[in-house]
Every structure is written in C-alpha cells, then in structure tokens.
Amino acid sequence: MNWAETTLVNSAPRRWLQRCYEVPVLLRFGGRLIPGTRALEIGCGAGYGSQLVLERFGAAGVDGVDLDPAMIRRAGARLARYGDRVRLAQGSATDLRAALGADDGGYGAVFDFRIVHHIPDWRKAIGEVARALAPGGRFYFDEVTAHALARPTYRRLFEHPTEDRFSAEEFLDELTHHGLVVLRSLTRIHSDYLLGVAAKPIAGGGET
Ligand SMILES: C[S@@+](CC[C@H](N)C(=O)[O-])C[C@H]1O[C@@H](n2cnc3c(N)ncnc32)[C@H](O)[C@@H]1O
C-alpha cells in the first residue's frame, strides 16, 4: 500500500465505517462465531479488523497474516493486550502454509477486510481461504471490485494491480469454484464494494 492508502485505512472515518456498517452487515449475514472458534484474518494490516473479530464476532483467538512486516509490528502493538489469543505472522495470503506452518487447515472462520483486490493472483488466495477453513467454517469478506479500482480517484490516489481485477460476480464465482457456498452477499455504490459470507460445506451434510 502507498502512503495515501495506509493513511486512509488507518483513519477514524474508515474504522467508523468498518465498525458501524460493515461489521453489522457481516454479522447479519453470517452471525457470531461458535464459542471456541479460532479465526484467521488475511491481510490484517494494523490489527483493527482482528480486534473486531475478537470483540464483535466472539472469536476465541485470531491468527493475523500480512505481507508487510511494518503492518505486523503495528498489529502486534495494538493486539498485545489479548496475549496468546492472538498470533501474527508475516507472509502471503497466497501461501498460508509458509506463513502459518502446518496447522493452517482448521479455521472456523476466515476474514478478508479489503485485501484480496491487492493480490495479483487473487484466485490463489481464494483457494487458500477455502483450504484453510474447517468443514462448516465461514468466510466473511468485504472487497473492492474492478469497478471501484477503475475510478479516477482510486487510480490517482492508490496503487493496485491493474490486470485481472474482479467484478462482484467473478469473486462470488471463484468462491463457488473452490467449493464454498455463498450464504448472502450484497454490493453497494454501483457494485464498487462487495460484502458477504460463504460457508465450507460439511461432507455429506448441510453447508454449516
Ligand atoms: C487495504 S489494506 C487492509 C488492511 C486491513 N485488513 C484493514 O481493513 O485495515 C490491505 C492489506 O493487505 C496486505 N496485503 C497485500 N497483499 C497481501 C498478501 N499477498 N498477503 C497478505 N497480506 C497482503 C497489505 O500489506 C495491507 O496491510
């Protein structure tokens, strides 16, 4: 992320939107987590999303992964009060085994607060999310589509991969391609943003 985006994502208005609009939508779509659930946040940035995963979604613990070591340091400072409920790792959402070690396949929930659109091989990241979830686990996502990234303000102010970005439909299709069942989703501001929840089916049972 460049300076402008780092400033924006860590600003009070952005956190207000996340806390007061996006989290309530995701809670309405996917509910709070079953007690004892350990969650993963990909692209945890400075750790505000992980704090919401603990406080609002009721996760027992959260593992946060971010590519940027400076972000991991900031998240470590923010989340220190939670002790061993939080583990942070520097690495890529496209290779969670390398970032997290061997025990990366059993998360009850994975959270994506606006990170997948930053990843050149975003399909690989979706595949990793599907693999990291335990059967019955849920993927909570809040994404920025190609429609938003094509806007002059986004192009001038921020730096994102320019090739092969996704529409809302393409993102949802990719979830289905990796075996996830989309429970509910919505787009807002002319499909600029996509929010939703998907579930990894339990073999031989329902999706949750
Ligand atoms: C727009 S910020 C969002 C940060 C945080 N989720 C939030 O809502 O405040 C995107 C974050 O994704 C991280 N990121 C970009 N590519 C990544 C990758 N391949 N794997 C993990 N994190 C990545 C960036 O370092 C940055 O912290």
Automatic annotation (TrEMBL):
The keyword DNA repair does not apply. Keywords: Methyltransferase, Plasmid, S-adenosyl-L-methionine, Transferase. It comes from Mycolicibacterium crocinum. CDD domains: AdoMet_MTases (cd02440). Gene3D superfamilies: Vaccinia Virus protein VP39 (3.40.50.150). Residues 40-137 form the Methyltransferase domain. This is Class I SAM-dependent methyltransferase. One of its GO terms (biological process) is methylation. One of its GO terms (molecular function) is methyltransferase activity. The keyword Transferase applies.
